[in-house]
Amino acid sequence: MLADSPPPAPSPTRLARTEWALALAAGVVALALHVRLFLAAGPLWRDEVNTVVVATQPTLAGVWDRLDCESFPLLPFALVRLWSSLGLARTEAGLRSFGLVVGLSCVAALWWCRAGAPSPPLLALVLFTLNPVVLRWGDSVRGYGLGALAILLAFPAVLRAVQNPRPAAVALAVVTATAAVQSLYQNSVLVFAMVVAAAVVSLAQGRRRHAALALGIGAAAALSLLPYLPVMERARRYGLVSTGESTPGHLASVLWRALGAEIGLGAAGQLLAVAWVAAIVWAFVAVAAHPPASGRPRATAFYALLVLLIAIPAHFAFLLYLGFPTMPWYSLSLVALSAACLAAVLPGESTSFRTSALVLAGALLVSVSPRVFSYLGLRQTNMDYHGAAPWATIPPLADTSVHRPDLLGRALREEDPVGTLVARVESTLRGGHRVYWVGLPPPAIERPPDRLPPLRGPLSGALEGIYCGNWTLQVAAALKEHGRPAEPVPMAPHRDPQPYERARVWVTTGPPPQVW
Length: 516
Hints:
The protein has helices at 12-40, 46-55, 60-66, 75-85, 92-112, 122-129, 132-138, 144-163, 167-183, 187-204, 208-223, 229-239, 248-258, 266-289, 295-322, 332-345, 351-375, 405-412, 419-430, 461-482; strands spanning 434-439, 487-488, 504-509. The protein has 516 residues and is mainly alpha-helical. It has two domains: 97-115 and 126-368, no CATH class; 405-509, no CATH class. It has a three-stranded antiparallel beta sheet. Helix 6 (122-129) runs parallel beside helix 17 (351-375), helix 8 (144-163) packs parallel to helix 10 (187-204) and helix 9 (167-183) packs parallel to helix 11. It is globular. The mean pLDDT is 90.
C-alpha cells in the first residue's frame, strides 16, 4: 500500500515569477487607489487649508512666526511654498497633485528598503499600499506623507552608511534622517530607533567606530531641531489648551485604526489590521527559524527587528508624554517604518515562508482593495461653505485664518468671551431672522448654564473642554429662548465626506416681529 506523497513545492523559478507578477499587480492597484483619491478628495479640509495659509505667508519670516500654530517643523511648509511658487498650487487639483506625488513616492521608496533581496517586498507592499490611513492622510496636503517618505528613505540609508561608511552614503544618511525630523517632530523617536539599532548591530560586529558613526547621524538630525526651541517655548505657553488625557488603551485603539481598521472600513479594515500584526510577529519568527547565515542579510535582518523593538514602545511613550488626543494619522510614520522593516526581513529565503507570503498578499489584494477603493471615493470635507450670512466661532476668535490655540487660551481667561456672540444671536432672532448652527446638533438645554469665572490657574485640555462646553450651552440657550426649535437644513446633493468631517447644518428662526 502506497502512502500519499506530499504536493510538490513550487519551483524556485515559478515562485519568483509569481511573486513579481503579484508585486506588479499590487503596484497597479496602488496607482489606481492613489489616483482614485486624487480625483475624489475634493476641497481641502480645515487642516490642509491651515497648511496652505502658513506656507504662503508673504515672507519666510512670516512662515516661521506661524509655526507655533502648527504641528510640523519647517520642511512641509517650505515644500508647499516651493510648489506654490512654481504656479502649481493655484487650484485645489494643483494642491492635491502635491499630495499625489508624495504618496506615490512613498510606494517607490518602499522598494528601496528591500536591501537588495532577489524577491520583491510583496507582503510589505500590499499591507502598506492598501492601508486607508496611508492613502488618505499620506496624500493630504499636510506633513504626514512627507514624514513617512523621509522615514522610508532614512531606514536603509542609515544602515548602509554604517556598514559601508563612504562619504556619499554618510551624507545621504544625514540628509534623510534630518529630513525625517524636519517633517514631523515625532519622527525624532523613529530616527532614534534607527541609529540605536544600527549602533547595536555595529557593536555586535566589533565595529565601535561604526557604532559611533550611527549615533553621530542621529546627533546631526537632533541638532537640526535646536532652532525650534523658541517655537516650542511659545507653543508651550498655551499648548496645553489643545491637549487631553491620553492612556495606553486609547493609544492602542488608535494604532489599531492606523493599521487599517479605520472608521468606515468594516471587516476589511479589521482584516488588514490583523494581517499587519501577524506579519510583524511572522518577521520575528522567520528570523528565529531561519536566521541569515552571515554578512549583510544577517545585519539587515537584526537591524530591522531591533528598529521595531525600539520604535514601537518609543512612539507610544512619546505620545503618552505629550498627552495629545491622538488620531490614526499621527502614527503614519510608524506604519511606514514597520513596512520598511517587513520589506527588509520578509519573506526570507525559505520557500514555505515565501509561498505563505504570496498567498496572504494575494488574499488581501482580492478581499480588501475593493472596500478601500470605495472608501477613497469619500470627499475630504463637506465644509466648503459659501453663503452670505456672517459667521463666528464659539468662542469668537480675532483670527480664524489659521489654528490659533493661543487665542483660545486668552478666551479662557476673559470675563465673558461669548457675551457679544450671545447678544448678536438674541438680536438676530428678535428681529425675526435666522441663525444657522454648523457642526454637531445644537445641544438640548432647559435653562442657561451658570457662567464660569475666568480661568486663573494653568491651562489644560480638560479645562478647555469644560469651558468650551459651557460657552456652547450659553449660545444654545439663547437659540432656545428666543427662537423656534432648530430644524435641519437640507444640503445640496454631494458625495459623502470622510467620517472625521461630516458637519450638518440646523437653522433656528426667530418669531416674526409684532406689528402694533
